[in-house]
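Human: We require from you a protein record containing the residue sequence and its fold in token form, and nothing else.

Assistant:
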Amino acid sequence: MGCAGSREKGDETSKKIRKPKPWKHSEPITRAQLLRLREEFWDTAPHYGGRKEIWDALRAATEADLTLAQAIVDSAGVIVQNPDLSICYDERGAKYELPNYILSEPTNLIRDS
């Protein structure tokens, strides 16, 4: 038996990941522009602090389906604050913030013709 304040394993650190809410870019954007923004973010993200292996895990999670993304963050020890992965922490308390354009496509994405 645990004490009244104890928690079962996984109830705080492993929130269920869900798809992010729809969002709109400030102006219509092409897929190529979106991919460029994403690549620039991932290239510079480790410079904002935190551990490279957590950034790598977050990138893999954002590019995977929800089931695989959940397995990735759980195995990397990522503490998910927002279920859409926009705010996460590592086990040492470092904060990782992911912008909308990393998490999903905007509603005003210009489709290639």
Summary: The longest helix spans residues 31-44. Residues 29-103 form a domain with the Bacteriocin As-48; Chain A fold (CATH 1.20.225.20). The first strand starts at residue 29 and ends at 30. The beta strands are 29-30, 79-80, 87-89, 95-97, 109-110.
